[in-house]
Every structure is written in structure tokens, then in C-alpha cells.
Write a structure and sequence with these properties.
Strands 3-2-1-4-5-6-7 form a 7-stranded mixed sheet, with helices on both faces. By secondary structure, it is an alpha/beta fold. Helix 7 packs across helix 8 (about 210-220). It contains 11 helices and 7 strands.
Amino acid sequence: MSLKTIAILSPGDMGHGVGKALREHGYDVITCLAGRSQRTRTLAAAGGFRDVPTLEEMITQADLIMSILVPAAAVGVAESVAEAMARAGVSRPFADCNAVSPATAQAMEAIIRDGGGEYIDGGIIGGSPARGATPRIYVSGPGASIMDELDGKGIGVPNLGAEIGRASGIKMCYASMTKGTSALRVAMLTAARSLGLYGELVAELAHSQQGALSAMESGVPGLPSNAGRWIGEMEEIAATFEGAGVTPSFHLGAAEIFRLLASTPFADESPETVDRDRTLADTIQVTAEHLPAAERISE
């Protein structure tokens, strides 16, 4: 089957970038913006998406549906798409490209199958094409080969075979390191700030871990804008690890760190509106101020 029209829910930071890349390679990229925010509408326009008024009409027109959104919303979107497929009386391949555990992917496979569709397990690693990156969308499942033709169209599409859960599993393992490391760094710096040792720690890092410190200086100030989305991702990683017989505690702790960042005023920013002049020290100071009172040792 040759793909011509691809539906993406939702054109957020990653979704609109993937859609833009596919549109530039000749695909008709559509979405349904009913009830969506002005930011989502703006990103859809930037990606060149064609808006379709209803979910049923979007599904009817699409050759492939891709779900690219926050993990906490993934199951709900799968349910909505399955119900719309059943109402419209059409069957479409549905690629869930979200940061969810293999167990969640398997649960969504049953939801989509019950609606008459075919589920493709997916997991995205890498940055958005909107910022010049070429992400890999790992896929697996009996029908995953339908996405093979998208490989090299502004994205990579490694196919991990016919088993549901393999694509989501590799995403969980990878993000456990990348986003997990970010959470650990914030925890370390916030603890040092609470103990009154922030300056001394940064001085030692500058002496012995300059590369890590530079990464913190460039990356940590932007984390609060993503923190709310990453809480659920850490919980999905914890579930993945527990299912594999590995402690879930590391990433349940990481979820708490992102929950802390999401409680700061900086979390009101979007990835497009992050204050690029805010320093690492500014970010950590405010984060420490939002610790529960019982956890503060020193001002």
C-alpha cells in the first residue's frame, strides 16, 4: 500500500515537525483541530497541515494515522480514534508513536483492534525536524511495514519486527538515560542549593566535570517547559523497568523531580517561549524555593 495522506494527532512540538518533514516529501498531512489550543493551531499552520473538521472525516481520508503527543493522553486518543473508526465503518493503520511502556502499547493494540483498525507500536528518539533534526521512529508489530516507505523522508523508520512492545521498549530504555539524567542533574543541583553548597558544587564541576556542567547550563533552564509532559513518561519508564524485573524507583524519583519543576513559574513557558537569558543558577534557585518546606535544610 502506497501512502498519500497521513493524519497526525497532534501537531505539537514533535508532531508538527514530523508532519512538516512528510509534507515536504510530497505527502498530504492532515489533522483535526477541533477543540485544540491556539498554540496547536499555530504549529499546525507552521507545519503545513490541512485541517479536517471531524475525527471521522480525518480517519476516512487518511491512509495512516500517527499519534504523537504526551504519553498521559495516548490511551485516550487511541480510544477516541477506535470509536471514530467504528462509527465511520473504516479500518486504518494507527501508529502510536508515544513514550509509553510495552504493557501500555499492548493495551492500546487491543483498543485499536476492537475498533477495527491495525495497531503499530512506535517510539520516537531524537529531536524535531522543525529544528533541523532527523528523528528515528522505531516501529514494530505485524503491520509495521506500512511505515517503511517513510524511512528517509525527513525521519528514520527502523523496523524492529512483528512484536508489539519492541518499539516502545527501546524508547523507554533510551529515555531512561537521557531524560533520567536530566532529572538526576536537577536533583543534585537542587539538593546542593538547599544545603547551601551550590557555589562550591558548581566550582568542583567546573574543575572536574566541565562537559556535564556545560550541558546543565544549556539544558536545565528549558526543562520546566517540558516537565509537565515528562512526568507521565517517567512513570511509563518505571512501569517498563518493573515489568523487566528492574527497580522502578529511579524513574519514579525522576517523575517527582519533573513534578517539582512543573510547580515553578517557569513551567508556564512553552518550548517556543523559554527565557533564553535565564541562567542555571536562576533556575535552580527558584526550584529549591518550591521544595516542600520539610525538605529544605538551608536557605
